[in-house]
Amino acid sequence: MDLAAIIRDIPDFPVKGILFKDITPLLREPEAFGQAVRQLAERFRDAHIDQVLAIESRGFIFGAPLALELGAGFVPVRKPGKLPDETIAVEYTLEYGTNRLEIHTDAIHAGERVLVVDDLLATGGSAKAAIQLVERLGGEVVAATFVIELESLGGAERLAGYPVYSLIKF
Fold first, then answer.
1. Which residues are part of the catalytic machinery?
2. SS3 per-residue string spanning 15-64
3. What's the pLDDT tens digit per position in 49-77?
4. What is the CATH number of the domain that holds 99?
5. Full domain range(s) for residue 87
6. 8-11 and 19-22 beta bridge pairing
7. What are the residues facing 55 on neighbouring strands?
């Protein structure tokens, strides 16, 4: 199945000048959604992943089933004020502004092998912030994986030094 053909373009969202890649058509098709999760999992099945860390919010959609497929734990990285216990945070820039991500201080243990997951790699700001959070907690980032990569925005280059895998590249 051609997953790229299922992704819908939404111009000028969330701000003028951005061409948003909408994954909701893929999500509404069980066969396509399942294929995307299985393809991501297959790439890392033998990587001995301890934790799958997903970035709020669309990363959760792929991260949770991917964690189950890999027999790993699931760690949510959230925007400020959403996690109820002690957190650490990193601020980052994205293609249309700045943001901040937080993680519970006990979410990753020293030496754990972590796979970072999100739906889309654009400039790499949120993924780089998530990697920094993992490393501050003593985890080892095995790779960063995405359903979609917007190659022209250079996110993979921003993540230099870490393996990056994307199912679909635009």
1. 58, 95
2. CCCCEEEECHHHHCCHHHHHHHHHHHHHHHCCCCCCEEEEECCHHHHHHH
3. 999 999 999 999 999 999 999 999 999 99
4. 3.40.50.2020
5. 48-169
6. antiparallel
7. 77
